[in-house]
């Protein structure tokens, strides 16, 4: 049985696809890299933003038109967030919800027999220690917990990923150890919010990082997005765990708005000062730390002053990576009962912030010119060369290198999204 998987969305969702592929592979399935050759086409959906929703729906429609006789299985967040739209888009497809992926082989067998399976809801199974087919053999993703303990007013992801469920630290350790023995050189710890790890079981992210970095070998660990409110009561320990040389000096902490009233309306449960304090403490202890943050432009209660507060914050913070989203209502969220602001105003604000983002990223990267960086090479460039990451997770391109190795590099050129280096 040949299967093809197309994945939308975050690192977490990519890991879900890798597990589905791993399970099918153990049950005599063969992963193919185009839908033509497949008996079953799996679309693992994301539904985080309106443009993503449109992309996902268009893709499902196109695949159905192109391959009307092939079996289609829809997985991912759309299954739980918008079943009505999915029913209209793909009434004959099978469905499997994110929490049911351990049943992938069973569901695929049933739909190949002609059953119309729609497996939704949750069975609380653990996603650690399952077989995976990695998309890059050098990078291993581990899901440390699923769901969240928050209620952000604009977010629909929590309807798909549910209440926080943290996975056992020893299973995570064993999976990390196995991946390094398999030849991986980078481990990505991922979750909807890695800082929430263990909040319901009495464990902590800092301890987990210490456990994973205790695995033998020369490798790097990337820690995924952390919600500020879940970092505050363990901040010293988290910073200490980041000081381990195996951890990329990179933090992804979403702020969403630079205005306290908007943050309160978003139900974020932290203030701008809480966020600034976290960043300052990291910068004091780890001088070359890279900062990634997320901003939503045009939340319904964002007026000009509130937007200017965001611009000011970003100007002061100078993040290395900034993800900007224009606000759109998401199904079933409290914020979707409010009025969206004028889309022209939103567009203008987004443009201003995007310009500032590129300026800052370029300035930050230019400061790295002529410095010597230790770079871990993890992939080949599609247009030639090799791509790696510096210790602070900046993308560095070099002409020649061996995959999976660390190299000493002099930075010779800077763009806003990557650096060019020469091996010394
Ligand atoms: S968890 Fe969020 S970002 Fe990830 S696939 Fe689901 S909706 Fe998309």
Question: What is this structure, in a nutshell?
Answer:
Helices cover 36% and strands 21% of the residues.
Structure description:
The chain has helices at 11-26, 50-66, 77-81, 83-89, 104-113, 157-161, 169-181, 205-213, 228-231, 235-242, 260-265, 272-285, 304-317, 343-366; strands spanning 2-7, 30-31, 40-45, 71-76, 94-96, 118-119, 139-143, 145-146, 165-166, 186-190, 220-223, 250-252, 290-297, 321-326, 372-380, 386-389, 395-398, 406-414, 419-423. With 424 residues, the protein is of the alpha/beta class. The protein folds into 3 domains: 2-119, 3-Layer(aba) Sandwich (Rossmann fold), CATH 3.40.50; 139-366, pyruvate-formate lyase- activating enzyme (Alpha-Beta Horseshoe), CATH 3.80.30.20; 372-423, Nucleic acid-binding proteins (OB fold (Dihydrolipoamide Acetyltransferase, E2P), Beta Barrel), CATH 2.40.50. Strands 2-1-3-4-5-6 form a 6-stranded parallel β-sheet, sandwiched between helices. Strands 15-16-17-19-18 form a 5-stranded mixed β-barrel. Helix 5 (104-113) links the parallel strand 5 (94-96) and strand 6. The mean pLDDT is 97. Bound molecules: iron/sulfur cluster.
List keywords for this structure.
single chain; 424 residues; alpha/beta; Rossmann fold; pyruvate-formate lyase- activating enzyme; OB fold (Dihydrolipoamide Acetyltransferase, E2P); 3 domains; five-stranded mixed barrel; globular; binds iron/sulfur cluster
Give me the CATH superfamily of the largest domain: tm_1862 like domain
Average pLDDT metric: 97
* CATH architectural grouping of the largest domain: Alpha-Beta Horseshoe
CATH class of the largest domain, named Alpha Beta
Helices and strands: which structural class?
Answer: alpha/beta
Instruction: Look up the CATH topology of the largest domain.
Output: pyruvate-formate lyase- activating enzyme
Rg measurement, Å:
22 Å
Strand content: 15-25%
Could you list the spans in which at least 5 consecutive residues all have pLDDT below 50? none
| Terminal CA distance | 48 Å
Q: Which overall shape is indicated by the principal axes computed on the Cα atoms? A: globular
Helix coverage percent: 25-40%
Number of structurally distinct domains: 3
The oligomeric state of the chains shown is single chain
**Largest sheet: spatial strand order:** 2-1-3-4-5-6
Bound molecule kinds, no repeats: iron/sulfur cluster
Number of helices: 14
Sheet with the most strands, sense and barrel status: 6 strands, parallel
Total beta strand runs: 19
